[in-house]
Amino acid sequence: MDMFVIRGGTPLAGTVTINGAKNAALPIMAAALASSGPSVLQDVPDLVDVRTLCKLLSELGMNVNRDASGDLRLEVVDDRPHAADYELVRTMRASVCVLGPLLARRGRACISLPGGCNIGDRPIDLHLKGLAALGADIRVERGYVIAEAGRLRGARIYLGGPFGSTVTGTCNIMVAAALARGKTTIESAACEPEVVDLGNYLNNMGARISGLGTPFLEIDGVEELTGTTHRIVPDRIEAATLMIAAAVTNGDVELKNVRSQHLTAVLEKLSEIGVKIANVGENRLRITTSGELRAADCIALPYPGIPTDVQAQLMSLLACTPGISVITDKVFPDRFMHAAELARMGAMIRREGPSAIINGAGQLSGAAVMASDLRASAALVIAGLSAQGDSAIRRIYHLDRGYERLERKLRQLGAHIERVEDRADTFPHSLRLDQPQTAAELTGPHWSHPIANTTSQKRSA
Ligand SMILES: CC(=O)N[C@H]1[C@@H](OP(=O)(O)OP(=O)(O)OC[C@H]2O[C@@H](n3ccc(=O)[nH]c3=O)[C@H](O)[C@@H]2O)O[C@H](CO)[C@@H](O)[C@@H]1O
Ligand SMILES: C=C(OP(=O)(O)O)C(=O)O
Questions:
Q1: Does residue 254 lie in a domain region?
Q2: 27 Cβ closer than 6 Å to some ligand 2 atom
Q3: Comparing C-alpha atoms, which of 41, 47, 27, 331 is closest to residue 168?
Q4: Is 117 an active-site residue?
Q5: 433 marked as binding residue
Q6: What is the mean pLDDT of each run of 10 residues along the chain (461 residues)?
Q7: Considering every ligand atom, which ligand is closest to the CA of 171?
């Protein structure tokens, strides 16, 4: 297992490019199962989740290849398989996105109930309700969803749940309805840019979906979807993560390939906190700070609100910002596993129902911490970058699900961060109780972890 060793305190500076979005790439790759021609997807990030889905799609009869330029080519070569095994599906939430395409095109699907980040209850009742409304016969047995249907038929579907709509649920129903006979309307559809990206991909293949980006979708079913070439929308969560990393270190960072229109709520909140964000060209933003940052209250909401996937990273920023801040998550009200780990670094955070009250500490101190999920990992990295001294962020396999070589991007910006195998001899000396720190160890200008550049570095290459 790998860990990050970070020496905090270096302001990030320089330019990095944002990848295509994980949460758009995964449902789009799954939707390729519903088409009868080849698709070429550009800007698909090289992530563990993407590799897992490639494996699953291969098992489902798809030819999946990344060519030399990085484009992902997908084509169905065998349309008989319809089962997605627990071993693959359990690691990744987005695997549930194969349900709609399989059902629509092959008439049956048998899929393990999905895993994904441990961020609270993640039922799929709305997915199943929507597919049943389209005519599928669905049962759950031994941990698997078993769905069967003849040709699906259009229906009126309401996708509102206790916490708003469902993102992957909207994706599933949209793909299934694109091939159903007749018209489907979806009310309370998710409006996330990743859902719009999937809709655009489907429309390019011949689907007839209107209302994308609004809660009301109209879908006229078609007989067939052909293949197409599609560039994945930039990852707004990766962009927000790097913006917050820049802000927390008092850095000066330029991001390329970022759609500021997908980040309005985050940009407004960061400005309120005192982060300076300037548009410096097409899809380019520059992030700087001047003077003290200010405490602020944040509520994570469905799009266009502040994304729940940025909540943990904002918590790290506010934990270093003097004053009282309150963060509430209205999408996953229990998504606060990072709070206890941030406390190890000196953060003062109290949980109250769906909220966390943060008494900003000014500066955190390095510590050994454990990542519990994808964005919690990102939050701990951010905290480590700003903290005084060394931090060890363990269990970063969560982070690798959703960020492509984050440590390389951060190093490109000057951060002191290394990926090493998590072993007793790689654990930072400064974090061992029996090892007194020297001033030189803490302030060396060319710090590099002694075991870096060995096994783990090669693995991440
Ligand atoms: C692969 C992917 O795109 N993952 C994203 C997707 O997850 P995912 O699609 O799983 O999240 P949902 O939008 O479905 O969940 C939102 C809320 O609805 C509830 N719910 C969901 C489905 C359902 O059938 N019944 C139900 O009650 C959930 O418990 C949660 O409280 O959207 C989340 C919310 O923006 C993000 O955090 C995830 O990064
Ligand atoms: C929660 C997330 O991912 P997933 O839905 O794939 O678990 C995320 O991207 O933050």
A1: no
A2: no
A3: 27
A4: yes
A5: no
A6: 96 98 98 97 97 96 95 97 89 93 97 82 95 97 94 97 93 98 98 98 98 98 97 98 98 98 98 97 95 94 98 98 97 96 97 96 93 96 97 96 96 98 90 64 47 44 37
A7: 1
Q: How far is the CA of 440 from the centre of ligand 2 (A)?
A: 40
Instruction: Give residue 398's domain range.
Output: 2-12+234-241+294-460
Reduced to 3 states (helix: H, G, I; strand: E, B; else coil), residue 456 is: helix
Do 319 and 371 lie in one domain? The reply is yes
Q: Count the residues in the chain.
A: 461
Ligand 2 touching residue 242 (CB < 6 A): no
Residue 289 within any structural domain of the chain: no
Residue (of 211, 176, 237) closest to 25 by Cα position: 237
Nearest CA to ligand 2 atom 3: 117
Residue 101 within a domain: yes
Two tokens at 103?
């059902």
Using CA positions, which residue lies closest to atom 4 of ligand 1? 23
43 with 93, same domain: the answer is yes
Q: Are 187 and 215 in contact (CB under 8 A)?
A: yes
pTM equals 0.94
Same domain assignment for residues 201 and 327:
no
For residue 107, give the CATH number of its domain: 3.65.10.10
The strand order across the sheet containing 208-210 reads 156-158, 183-187, 216-220, 208-210
Give residue 181 CA to ligand 2 midpoint distance, Å: 32
Alpha-carbon torsion, ordered 64, 66, 67, 71, to 10 deg: 110
State the Cα–Cα distance between residues 120 and 112, nearest whole angstrom: 19
Question: What is the tally of structural domains in the chain?
Answer: 2
Residues 312 and 179 in one domain: no
Q: Is the CB of 309 under 6 A from ligand 2?
A: yes
Same domain for 168 and 312?
no
Ligand 1 site residues, Cβ closer than 6 angstroms: 23, 26, 93-94, 121-127, 161-163, 166-169, 307-309, 331-332
338 lines ligand 2 (CB under 6 A): no
Q: Please check whether residue 315 lies inside any domain of the structure.
A: yes
